[in-house]
Amino acid sequence: MFQKGRLTLGLNLPIEAHGNNVPTLEHQIERARLAEEAGFTCLWFQDVLLEDPTFEDPATGQIFDSLIYLTYIGAHTSKINLGTAAIVTPLRHPLRLAKEVASIERLFPERLMLGISSGDRRKDFEGLNVPIMERGRLFREAYDYFTQVISEEFPAIESPMGKIDKSNLVPKPSSRIPVLMTGYCQQTFDWIAEHGDGWMFYPQPPDKQVDMIRSYRNKAGPETFRPFIMPLPIQLSADKDEPLSKIPAGYRGGRKAITEILKEYQSIGVNHIMFNLSKSERPVEAVIHEFQDYIIPSLEEDTST
């Protein structure tokens, strides 16, 4: 899914133009399969517990629990990757999380992309009685515990999160699960560059995002390729010639303009973009088909030349 110099595309769940309304979650299997056939490489799921009217998220993530819904959609598709954007590790015990994601990876080999974050939804922290101001420390502790228990056989772990002594997590994943940091996770930039297998960062115009990508890769070092991933809200116009215009955190335009801005992101080193179609003014099926017929082939052609 991640290759140096290549941009791939994904979709956030729910795949639905629900706007400011609560999504119906209808036809998600059909749309996931359509995205798979169209050439999208990943479906992304958010980790949200509670509806919070002040957060302006009518979908409350995708309503269903991220890992349960990911497994459900994975069982009805065959090859498209399944990503979390992102699991809030201070709110999930790392041993339980390791058991869950290792099981998913064994059931759907080499399809899971594990985005992790420190979280920012105060109501979720309050609901679980976890102090939100300690999420940076909790994130590091959970990350260290998770990394050790999922990768080592009979590890010796003594952590504020728990103790592992003469016991072993099963199953172990059949292949390494890519772990993607999301934002700064309440850590330093140096820490982010040193840990994980890639970085998901917030949408910015290409002239600003390029500096962030360069800084990240310079810090991470040239010996290992680490992908850069970003979300991007879009509104794909039915008029193929409509010029590019800004919408909150993203872009609106016809397929020609959208293709060009995606090529620009590809040229600065973005490796994957996940689209949120919730604000689409067209049926999402029509948008997916237009990506399949025009935009994805154009990106692939640009990469091969």
From TrEMBL:
UniProt lineage: Bacteria, Bacillati, Bacillota, Bacilli, Bacillales
Domain Luciferase-like: 20-247
Protein name: Luciferase-type oxidoreductase, BA3436 family
Molecular function via GO: monooxygenase activity; oxidoreductase activity, acting on paired donors, with incorporation or reduction of molecular oxygen
Keyword terms of this UniProt record: Flavoprotein, FMN, Monooxygenase, Oxidoreductase
InterPro entries reported for this sequence: Diverse_substr_monoxygenases (IPR051260), Luciferase-like_dom (IPR011251), Luciferase-like_sf (IPR036661), Luciferase-type_oxidoreductase (IPR020020)
Pfam families in UniProt: Bac_luciferase
The species this protein was found in: Salimicrobium flavidum
